[in-house]
Amino acid sequence: MEDTAVQQASLPNLNSMKEQYDKQISDLLKRVSELETGHKKHPAVQFLTYKDKKRILVTGGAGFVGSHLVDALMFQGHEVTVLDNFFTGRKKNIEHWIGHENFELIHHDIVNPIYIEVDEIYHLASPASPPHYMFNPVKTLKTNTMGTINVLGLAKRVHAKVLFASTSEVYGDPEQHPQDEEYWGHVNPIGPRACYDEGKRVAETLCYSFAKQDHVEVRVARIFNTYGPRMHMSDGRVVSNFILQSLQNEPITIYGAGNQTRSFQYVSDLVDGLLALMNSNYSLPVNIGNPEEHTILSFAEIIRNLIGTSSKIVLLPKMEDDPQRRKPNITRALTYIGWQPKVGMLDGLNRTIEYFKAELSHAKRKESFNVYGHSASKKSLDQDLAKFSDIKRHNTL
Questions:
Q1: Backbone CA torsion sign across 252, 256, 259, 264
Q2: Known catalytic residue: 50?
Q3: Which of 32, 209, 257, 377 has its CA 20 to 30 A from that of 336?
Q4: pLDDT greater than 70 at residue 375
Q5: 122, 133, 171, 196: which is the annotated catalytic residue?
């Protein structure tokens, strides 16, 4: 009786594993079929004549923001070249375009010069979350200085327009609230965040120096906190941390008392802002962010309630030079490029939560598959491979 009960209890788990393996086999069959036929189905894009089609370079195009920008440019019908060293970028973010006639991927570090023909450059290359840019401060500085010099040098040679992705971090821990583009900032030049803050500040200086001296056409976007699908799961940012901790019923960690504020925008709003700025005639820096301001503590509570978790909120010691208030004044964006955010916070958070749920589920399936693979005998693996071959043969008849 006990044996029967144990067998019945294990059936749901076995059925779940069978469903996972069936899906993995189905995905493998699909990929094998694509490889054998030499055809890959890409998302539909708009057709542009050679007069309207631009050759566009996106540095950091495999990253969180860059990949969404690449999607928008590809959908518009332009020829897009992605340049990325894959320090934080992932091929998974842009794999759906690989093989498309309008798309090219170059594995390259922008610290080294690049020689290609382009009409526009979106310069997004740089680690953007504190754990990533603090991991190698000197490299972060080199990316934002030498890398920006290389981008501007390329633009000078081929007469391309450049949009530089700057950051709200140029304002440091601001003494003015909200922050407008005329504010010069309050930055600690030797603090732990300085490699990023000062790197972006000198990159802005380089942009306007090239504009004045060599007549390079530049645009500068000061990007505020952004969230959405394709965020790196280990980037250490507020949104990804809170969502992952809540989904796994782990304590939600806040550094400081939680009364510091941030303004969060959804990634599609940011992409719309970058496109609008590039296509405008406005050359001064422009804040691209959502002026809806929340304390970190209230934001953690919102995410916890949306997910419905029992995670406790834990306060940890404050991080050095952590800005206490952050809110953009977007009057300039509204006035000169006609941009303002459209996606509501709850809508954006729900989309992001669904993305992280899928990522966690995928990670668990992969772990389960690896455990199965390592624990199985060679004979059982050979049997599985034989079954896979039979299934493949059956489906191709």
A1: negative
A2: no
A3: 209
A4: no
A5: 196
